[in-house]
Design goal:
- A hairpin with a 5-residue loop joins strand 3 and strand 4.
- Helix content is 30%, strand content 22%.
- The strands form 2 sheets. Strands 6, 7, 8, 9, 10, 11 and 12 form a 7-stranded parallel β-sheet that branches. Strands 1-3-4-5-2 form a 5-stranded mixed β-sheet, with no helix packed on it.
- The longest helix has 21 residues.
- It has 246 residues and is of the alpha/beta class.
- The chain binds S-adenosyl-L-homocysteine.
- S-adenosyl-L-homocysteine binds next to helix 6.
């Protein structure tokens, strides 16, 4: 079943008219017919069972659905920017794994150089990738992709728990899964293809980030990002409502 996001708060019984591009996608691409059902998530993250109106000129919200598909913890990922499709893949997979916010990171060894007007265009494109992934996996919210930031701005993105994954310390630092504690929010920093320099790690430590390992092998940046989100899912996600709570 299709799911869409609308920015405004809504209530059951209401007919909403999403933006033209969304209605076009539903009626012309997905080819939903009048009275066909879909899911709508409103600006308050309330999910509704809904249907296309008889005239196909809007969407009638039928009933509120209590379905929270979000992680129980806010996860912010600062990710060294990597090239092309691998970056798109990182955005999509981390969205499926429940990330709350992705902050593209410019660091010493980042080969991707984006600034000014191009940064805003890229950020809009990345936000669309994330919104599409959030619809597909039935998220209750669309994660935020910010414009690229530099490493010395990392302190602004700290959470209750803050980790930087450093490949050079992978055999000596404690693993992320061992360090994660129940919390409301976590920030994890992942480097670009070229990794982090010791001076960058020092700067991040000064900013309150603790070194962690993602295991014995050196992972590609996109794999490392997915590993970090999987660790948060594994350690911090409560059992589902009908799961066996041990
Ligand atoms: N170019 C480097 C690897 C960089 S991997 C090399 O080949 O040595 C990109 C990023 O993924 C790293 O900066 C780090 O943040 C993370 N990473 C990859 N494997 C890791 C591991 N085993 N432990 C901790 N961090 C890791």
């Amino acid at each position: 079943m299709q799911q869409i996001f609308i920015p405004q708060r809504a209530c059951a019984g209401q007919v909403v008219v999403p933006e033209e591009a969304v209605m076009h996608h539903l009626l012309r691409v997905v080819r939903l017919k009048p009275l066909e059902h879909l899911r709508v998530v409103d600006g308050d993250r309330q999910c509704f069972e809904a249907e296309i109106t008889e005239e196909s000129d809007g969407i009638r919200l039928l009933s509120a659905v209590e379905e929270n598909s979000e992680l129980d913890v806010e996860v912010t990922l600062l990710a060294g920017m990597i090239k092309g499709e691998r970056w798109d893949w990182l955005l999509q997979k981390c969205t499926e794994l429940g990330v709350s916010r992705i902050v593209p990171l410019k660091s010493q060894r980042t080969v991707v150089r984006i600034s000014g007007e191009k940064a805003a265009q890229k950020q809009q494109r990345w936000q669309k990738i994330v919104e599409q992934a959030a619809r597909q996996c039935r998220r209750s919210r669309v994660p935020q992709v910010t414009e690229p930031v530099s490493l010395n701005q990392a302190a602004a993105w700290r959470s209750e728990q803050n980790f930087v994954a450093w490949e050079d310390e992978r055999l000596h630092s404690a693993r992320l899964v061992s360090l994660l504690q129940p919390a409301r929010s976590v920030t994890v920093v992942i480097g670009p293809e070229g990794g982090f320099s010791p001076s960058e790690i020092e700067l991040l430590k000064q900013a309150g980030y603790q070194c962690c390992s993602l295991g014995r092998r050196i992972l590609r940046a996109e794999t490392a990002a997915v590993y970090a989100l999987c660790a948060c899912n594994f350690v911090l996600e409560e059992e589902t409502a009908d799961g066996q709570v041990d």
